[in-house]
Amino acid sequence: MGNEKRILLKEINLLENKKLIWGLNIAGIMLFFVFFFIFSKLGFLYSASLYQTFDFGALMLGVILFLGLIIIHELIHAVFFKTFQPTKKVKFGFKNGMAYATSPHSYYKKYQFIIICLAPFIIITAGLIIFFLLNILPASMFAFLVALHGAGCVGDFYFTYLILFAPKNIWIEDTEQGINFYY
């Protein structure tokens, strides 16, 4: 997208819209249970130890691994921001309980921003499945981490939904608060 005149179609301010944040948090909780159900079934197919007890050490390890996944998640976004807009800067932040990566004032085609949104979910989920199948992650930890990470992707899923139903030839601008749609 060059210097041609842009017409703003829609603005999504994710970080400052309290009602939207609450809605996404509720959707994230529901997603946690959906993903946990799906991936615990997968885990049960490959392991009889799915329902092992969680002790305090396992819980702490799960929390530490999840915090690591958040960092990896945002770094994956950054890699794809830079892949599609190599000269633009990427910023990282944390606001209203959400970690984020952003490339303010960068413009992307629909397919590019969908890739940016979904890449962390796909890559991390695939990685966790591989670690589980290689017996690096126990089944219960696997189901917990995939569900927690999947629930944490709710904002990415929301943006993807909006982009999929947006007009065909739009551009998406990444902003520090969310995204804008332009003709």
TrEMBL record:
Q: Mind telling me which InterPro entries this protein's record contains? A: DUF3267
Tell me one Pfam family matched here.
DUF3267
What are the TM regions of this chain, as residue ranges? 20-39, 59-81, 113-136, 142-164
Q: Which organism is it from?
A: Candidatus Enterococcus lowellii
Report the domain of life of the source organism.
Bacteria
Q: Which UniProt keywords apply?
A: Membrane, Transmembrane, Transmembrane helix
- Name-wise, this protein is DUF3267 domain-containing protein
